[in-house]
Amino acid sequence: MDNIISWTAEDEAIIATNTDATECKRCAVELGYWKDDYITYFAKHVDRKAPEINRGYYARVRAMEMFIHQFLERCDTKCQIINLGCGFDTLYWRLKDSTQAVGNFVELDFQAVTSKKSHIIKRNKQLLEKISNEDGEVMIREGDLHSDGYHLVSCDLRCLGEVRRKLAGAGVSPDAPTLVLAECVLVYLRPDAAHALLRHLSSTFPRCALLVYEQCNLGDKFGEVMVRNLSARGCALAGEGYCREPAAQAQRMLSLGFQAARSWDMHTVWRALPEEDRARVEALEMLDERELLLQLNSHYALTVATRGDIFADMDLNA
């Protein structure tokens, strides 16, 4: 049986980071950093964010999309995507507009998040019509939403047994090519819970890719300030000890059963983006604090871990 984990004020603080991220994304979208026709449903009003914040979110979204499309290009059949700690991410709808290669899309988060997201989807036709099957059947119950090819389910990622049940109930198959997304999620899990989850993923899906975006280099002075600021908001980083240099994150994934792994800080990722993309974004806003942007980008990393030869060459420059 799963261990029962008591609900804490820290969980509430972690949930609040979803609201912050969604508002930051809407601000950047409104300024033209990238296109997202759906973010306005999840963040109604936002204050303007600092240019370095907008640019940082652009690099995050652009890099994730780059690797998602690499993954889709390598699939010889319909794949499945599992979004851990999904928050109010709009990726499903954006992909729905551009590809039919995703056979099943599963999102997991705390019930407080999935209940609100389900409510927003149910209320807005533009969101709802894209998850309806030919019969238009969508089932919403106790914070979970199920349709043909899209599942939004409440789940505590710290309870592996619950994760297994929820994925099975959402029709996840070990045989399908599988992409797992974890953006600022693992760092909030105790190392034993994170490792159990990662081992389960690597052992269950023989053809898979895992994309992890989270803090890195937290051992220096700037990193210590980041940790203190999050702690002041009630967000203790239970996995802080694994957020050191990017290479250590890649090694961690190899030790947990993935066959290949590589990791880069976001400054490296930014420099690897096409020059025309960077030039377009840099023209959107004046950036006075270039040093602050460099520090921010040096304290977040993108890690790609894979199983199966078909995904082994996924890389920044692939």
Automatic annotation (TrEMBL):
- A single GO molecular function term of this UniProt record: protein C-terminal leucine carboxyl O-methyltransferase activity
BP GO terms, sorted = methylation; regulation of signal transduction
GO cellular component, as recorded? cytosol
Q: Which InterPro entries match?
A: LCMT1, Ppm1/Ppm2/Tcmp, SAM-dependent_MTases_sf
Query: Species lineage, top-down?
Result: Eukaryota, Metazoa, Ecdysozoa, Arthropoda, Hexapoda
Q: Which family does it belong to?
A: Belongs to the methyltransferase superfamily. LCMT family.
Q: What is this protein called?
A: Leucine carboxyl methyltransferase 1
Q: Which Pfam families does the record associate with it?
A: LCM
Its EC number is 2.1.1.233
**Looking at its record, which EC class is this enzyme?**
transferase
Please verify whether the record's keywords include S-adenosyl-L-methionine. Answer: yes
